[in-house]
Amino acid sequence: MKQIIVVSLAVGLVTGLIGYNATAAGEADAARMPALAEMPGGYRDWPVIAVAHEEGKLNDIRAILGNDVAMKAFRAGAGTYPDGTIIARLAWDYHPLEESRQAFGAPQSFVAGSPKNGVQFMIKDAKKYASTGGWGYVEFDNGKPSATAMPEACFACHSIVKNRDFVFSQYAP
To answer: What phi and psi, each to the nearest 5 degrees, are found at residue 57?
Structure first.
């Protein structure tokens, strides 16, 4: 009888550990999987949240766009964003506008050039992406999820703004 109890407990323990590890691995895998299989239709028509100029290695100009859920939260001054929030980042290299240089005698106005680093999205789903602060990250190159994008790297950078729910951009009305 003791052997049956010991074997039953051992089987139960092993089954529980396997289930726990599968769940933990699934959560970690969710953070690595593309948060979207395809780019959201009409994202280029989303309202502008902000524009930015990145220096250093990135050296680009960018537009930050948001879906309806994101815009409602940004306009309300949200400290956290609800599930369903999607934030898009479009970036371009830039160059001086020749006519501006001629008018002012030096480069003054800069305009967008070629797109850079694909189109990036942050998708809020607190349960699915719990291991990355509730956000899924994905980059699209030529309309397809990037094979080289690393969501963990996105999260690592965004961790510095944890107090703003991992969102760098602030609404510019």
So the answer is: -60, -35
Please list, in sequence order, all residues whose beta carbon lies within 8 angstroms of the beta carbon of residue 125, skipping any fewer than 6 positions away: 35, 83, 84, 134, 135, 136
Give the residue numbers spanning the domain of 37. 33-164
CA–CA gap between residue 69 and residue 123 (Å, rounded): 11
The total domain count for the chain is 1
Higher pLDDT, 145 or 11: 145
Residue type present at position 139: E
First-to-last alpha carbon distance for the chain, in angstroms, is 73
- Per-residue pLDDT tens over the stretch 64-117: 999 999 999 999 998 999 999 999 999 999 999 999 989 999 999 999 999 998
DSSP symbol at 159: G
In a domain, residue 97? The reply is: yes
Residue 16 lies in a domain: no
Instruction: Tell me which H or E stretch contains 144.
Output: strand 144-145
The 3-state DSSP class for residue 60 equals strand
pTM of the predicted structure, to 2 decimals: 0.77
The conformational region for residue 59 under phi > 0 = left, psi -120 to 50 = alpha, else beta, is left
Q: How far apart are CA 25 and CA 9, in angstroms?
A: 24
Q: Does 172 fall in a domain? A: no
